[in-house]
Input
Amino acid sequence: MRNASERLKFIRPLEPTLVEKSPEGDGWIHEVKFDGYRSQIVIDADGVRIFTRRGLDWTAKYRDLAKAAGELQADAAIIDGEIIVPNEAGVSDFGELRKAITRRQHDLYFVAFDLLHLNGHDLRDMPLEDRREVLQAMIPAGQRIQFSEALPGTGAAVFHLVEQAGLEGVISKRKDSKYRSGPSTNWLKAKCYSIDEYELLGVEREAGKPAFALMAERGTGRYVGSAFITLNREMRERLWQRVQEHAGTAPKGMKRPATQWVKPGLIGRVKHLRGEEDLRHASLQDFREEQIHPREQEM
Output
């Protein structure tokens, strides 16, 4: 039976600000930005509860993690972190996360990176470094709940390392910062880019405005967003020629008057932020016509 009598409440998370690159200087720590679900573990006299970033109680969905949290040496605590599923390379895999929640609880891990409350004490006014020191001491190594280690090196060096490893990005945090709910510049997130191929649905062009390529997921046709067309003049003209040659009709449910739609068969290479379900900060880098196997043409 836990000694703490106070029933703790969910605390709205601190939200990092998106920046182009990680900050420099000695006043920051840098951590891997994990590709998972931001979550909060609350431990008190009533047991363990796990909340989503918006405060929904998902304890029932995270039974194994709740059991692991109950074994931590704390009568009462509020822990900020991320629920992830690592792949064979140890990289968090968002695509596998939803499957694991319903079918593979044993694959779920909670990566803890901040401690907001401990045994009757509100720690949010303590410097980040001190909060993390206490948090690290209460998390045993090699368990389902893990501590998010800070990476050594400058902001630029850490970002380069993370990018080369295929990770989503870097979270940089001021060492002396207090924890305040909502948007904050005390935590900064710099996200890495990926280049992937998508099906071109059409090109949106309006006078006096940038041109955008509307993209869909290959295989499913699901619209995933638009990409700014950054091609040089020659390639832009070639793209527009192909679009006119492959003129098609709008996909069902899509109404965009300034768009020239195309038939399936044009594939675009798009640079975009990693870790987003749909395209964000995306640009069209190149395009090609899909190669069809001769046997497919005969069918």
